[in-house]
Amino acid sequence: MTLAITQTVRHGYKEGFLIAAAPLVTDVPIVLTLFFLLRELPGQALGALGMVGALYALFLAYETAKAESVGEAGSATAPASLKKGALANFLSPHPYLFWITVGVPYVLAAHEKSAMAPWGFIAGFYLLLVGSKAGVAALTGRYRGLLTGRAYPYVMRGLALALVIFAILLFREGLHFFSADVQ
Predict the structure, then answer these.
(1) Residues with Cβ < 8 Å from 95, sequence gap 6 or more?
(2) SS3 142
(3) If we measure between CA atoms, which residue out of 150, 134, 19 comes closest to residue 87?
(4) Angle (CA) 51 163 38, round 5°
(5) Structural contact between residues 126 and 31, judged by C-beta atoms closer than 8 angstroms
(6) Buried b / exposed e across 109-128, counting CB within 10 Å, b at 16+?
(7) How far is residue 153 CA from its own chain's centroid?
């Protein structure tokens, strides 16, 4: 969510929407892999994902903190929002955990009751997941003009701080997976 807000503030609603849409790109390979191959992903793999994701979140925080004006991403490069969102999603253990613990078991159980039930669950899930992020990006994009001028660097640094906190939480979570495997 923070990344969707950050990209919207920097580059406009379209870029925030691309962040919001990233799970539509990343979750298909995650779900298919978990569904067909990895019924149980080892805790150390989830821990490593979380730690790499924490490093990526720190990189994004640094990039966000450097932005001094609307449209500036800390460099002259294109925003690459879908790529950033997809990478952040792949490197987070949360989609894996959700699909291992809730998603795949629910889809399998729902399929036993009705062939359409799993599709209803998946459609509703992604409508709410992507829709809520897109809604926040739309609101942020609508009021983006309020953040120009002297307030902009402070808002961006606040968003960078939120990304740092998220990175710390991901790192702690990664350590937890490693310690759980040891016990």
Answers:
(1) 23, 26, 27, 30, 89
(2) helix
(3) 19
(4) 35
(5) no
(6) ebeeeeeeebeebbeebeee
(7) 23
CA distance 45 to 177: 8
The H or E element spanning position 4 is helix 2-11
- Residue pair 74/17 in contact by the 8 Å Cβ criterion: no
Per-residue pLDDT tens, the chain, 183 aa: give them: 888 888 888 888 899 999 999 999 998 888 888 777 655 566 677 777 778 878 888 888 888 888 766 554 444 567 888 899 999 888 888 888 888 777 887 888 888 889 999 999 999 999 999 999 999 899 988 888 777 677 778 888 888 898 899 889 888 888 887 776 555
